[in-house]
Amino acid sequence: MSDTDVDNEAQKPKDVFSTLVAVGDCLYLKGVYNKAIDSYTAALSMKPDDKTCLVGRSKCYLRMGQFENALKDAEASLKEDKTFFKGLYQKAEALYYMGKFEFALVFYHRGQKLRPLMQEFKLGIQKAEGAIENSVGSPSSMKLEIKNEDTTKMEQPVTATQHLTTEKKQRNQKIPKSEKTTKKLLGEFYSDKKFLENLLNNEDLTKSKSKGGERLQDVIQSCLTSLDTCTKFLSQKKPICSPEGQRKQKSTKPHRSPSYDLVPFLLKSLDEIDAELTSGNAEGSLKKAVEVMNIVQGWSEKDMPDKKEVMGSLHSCIGNALFDLGDLDKALEHHQKDLELASGCKLSEAMSRALDNIGQIYAQIGQYNQAIGFWEKKIPLVCDGLEKTWLLHNIGCCYLELERYNEARDYGINSVTAADEIADLKWQINANVLVAQSELKLRNFETSVSHFERALTQARLQDDHSAVNAIQKALDEAKQHLQK
């Protein structure tokens, strides 16, 4: 075997790894999370400690509701580098969706300290503080401690367990004292509460620690605090004893279950709809979404104050399923209804979602002007750096298709800036290629060559050999114009 053959053989694993990661990234952006996980897993079998790949798979797990797996991958990405900001953000996100808001807040703050200009950490801090305030009171009563020590252990915020503040003691005193009342309010969770209280009395057990470094006493007390908060909430929303007159009125005029009884049903249903779609079963997802919509339509806004928001989400789910089934006209109708409901309720996230989906459909059928119109309305609503990067890139590509090269170049440059801010190599490559193609069409050959060269360097850093070959070919063609 020649030296060249040896080099080629050594290069193959790198080619396969980079291809698997690129496929995983692409599938993630398309929302095919289960297949993206398969691709990332195959890549990790070759490089088990690749932190970028671990974060990619963690993001997929998070989207699929597998929060434990998402946290596990995020922590693995931090094993060698405790300051890896993408891993810190992903860990914070996983903790947030697991309901561990105080822990999430710690890691959002830690990430912001490392990357103070990164918007995602700022937004994470805001939503974690909001969640804490909604569940146990104002976070202003907390003393959040962020240290530069080993980040494999999560610091326990003061209010979580050991030293209850006066404010928290006052809150706990408002919880119904009658065990019978508490039992009725908690239902099947009452036995869990008693079990946890018994565990708390076991000193040997409470002194031990979990694999993540948490004291079991803290974990148990945190669970009990959550149950107490739940009891307080239910005592306000679901009175055990009603006045006699009200009791008679209810018996003569049946009333549907109040909103807090419907929420678990909705969350479970939406998860099932999303799971069917991500697994490739668009027909099953569509059928389930239509069934749930028929049920929700029968509820009054008194039963479900957020009925319009829920209906919008269901229209979005139906639209996505129809898109996958190729019925783009009907898909467009449902996404437009989603946009109408979101606009009426002034729900910025839902508006952003609907505008994105409508733009995707118009781009799919080649109506680029319409796609641009909806996507440009989405720009002010986008906070996530990655989403902003690909949105600007997609708009630029539409302008390129329309042969409006100046606009394509301008959006490409903005996409490059956004990609640089989040240090995303893959999108830096895509954005620079878009600028280079636009400049080439504008006959600005030197600028075109410069951007192709930058994209080529980034592709080599990614070990993306298919991209390297394609960019090298385009670069050679651009250089030929310089020689004329």
Describe the secondary structure blueprint for this structure:
Layout: H1 3-30, H2 33-44, H3 51-63, H4 67-77, H5 85-97, H6 101-114, H7 119-136, H8 166-173, H9 179-186, H10 189-200, H11 203-207, H12 216-237, H13 244-252, H14 259-278, H15 282-297, H16 307-324, H17 328-345, H18 348-364, H19 368-378, H20 385-401, H21 405-421, H22 425-441, H23 445-461, H24 465-483
Helix pairs in contact: 1-2, 1-3, 2-3, 3-4, 3-5, 4-5, 5-6, 5-7, 6-7, 10-12, 14-15, 14-16, 15-16, 16-17, 16-18, 17-18, 18-19, 19-20, 20-21, 20-22, 21-22, 22-23, 23-24
Brief rundown of the structure:
The chain is 74% helix and 0% strand.
Report the radius of gyration as a whole number of Å.
26 Å
**Distance between the terminal alpha carbons, to the nearest Å?**
43 Å
Strand count, sense and closure of the main sheet? none
Number of strands: 0
Q: From the helix content, strand content and strand pairing, which structural class follows?
A: mainly alpha
Average pLDDT metric: 77
* Percentage of residues assigned to helices: over 70%
Task: Describe this protein's structure.
Helix content is 74%, strand content 0%. The protein has 484 residues and is mainly α. Helix 3 packs antiparallel against helix 4 (67-77). It starts with a helix and ends with a helix.
